[in-house]
Amino acid sequence: QVDLVESGGGLVQPGGSLRLSCVASGFAFSQYAMTWYRQAPGKGRELIASITRTTDYARYADSVKGRFTISRDNAANTVYLQMDRVKPEDTAVYYCFTEGYWGRGTQVTVSS
Fold it and tell me: Where does the pLDDT of residue 54 fall: very low under 50, low under 70, confident under 90, or very high at 90 and above?
């Protein structure tokens, strides 16, 4: 059974940093690309970053490019999202996704 469990969310001040983690189980993690989405209140889900299975290519939404970094550790079945220079508009629930499976999400709130 596929399971994706996000963690690392919380309250952070504008300009601060946060690192999200997503631990995967139930499938061959190293064989699949992984993606982070977010959903802000009243809005649809937005793809913000994805990474190939071999980590040789990552892409980002324009809204986070240059501030967020996606990475993965295939030995630990974990994908990360390093969030730097966060802004209030980054407030959202952040979800891990692969091959039709979603995690339960972790809340990130950017506020002073």
Answer: confident
Query: How much is the mean pLDDT over the chain?
Result: 96
Is residue 56 exposed (0-12), middle (13-18) or buried (19+ Cβ within 10 Å)?
Answer: exposed
Does residue 85 sit in helix, strand or coil?
Answer: coil
What pLDDT, on a 0 to 100 scale, did the predictor assign at position 56? 74
> What's the rounded Cα separation, in Å, for the pair 104 and 26?
16
Q: What is the Cα–Cα distance from 47 to 95, expressed in whole angstroms?
A: 9
Q: d(Cα 76, Cα 61) in Å, to the nearest integer? A: 26
Helices of type H across 45-84: none
The sign of the torsion formed by the CA atoms of 40, 41, 44, 45 equals: positive
What is the per-residue pLDDT across 67-89, written as a single tens digit (0 to 9) for each? 999 999 999 999 999 999 999 99
Residue 34 · residue 79 · CB < 8 Å: yes
How many residues make up the chain in this entry? 112
